[in-house]
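TICKET: design request
STATUS: open
ATTACHED STRUCTURE:
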């Protein structure tokens, strides 16, 4: 007898859950398609955040190296902006 009672309770709960989902869909606030679009967007944003956090850590490390070593700072400046000393020239060689 208790099994039948639990079965009836589960049926009522499933029916109520279905009604709630149908009412939400009918109202048009959020559909199931919207949910999956938002979920996909969330995954893209999480991936972008992970990439940006990696970029931040690399930049913080680079800043620390530049502030601690004047010679490294000069090297980065020369390499990145193609700056030379007075007696130097830049030669670009093609393959």
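STATUS: resolved
RESOLUTION: sequence designed for all positions
ATTACHED SEQUENCE:
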């Amino acid at each position: 007898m208790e099994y039948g009672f639990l079965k009836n309770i589960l049926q009522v709960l499933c029916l109520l859950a279905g009604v709630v989902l149908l009412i939400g869909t009918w109202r048009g606030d959020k559909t199931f398609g919207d949910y999956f679009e938002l979920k996909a967007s969330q995954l893209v944003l999480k991936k972008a955040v992970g990439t940006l956090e990696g970029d931040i850590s690399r930049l913080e490390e680079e800043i620390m190296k530049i502030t601690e070593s004047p010679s490294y700072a000069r090297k980065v400046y020369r390499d990145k902006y193609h700056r030379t000393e007075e007696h130097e020239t830049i030669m670009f060689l093609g393959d």
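CLOSING REMARK: DSSP finds three helices and no strands in the chain. The CA atoms of residues 66 and 73 lie 5 Å apart.
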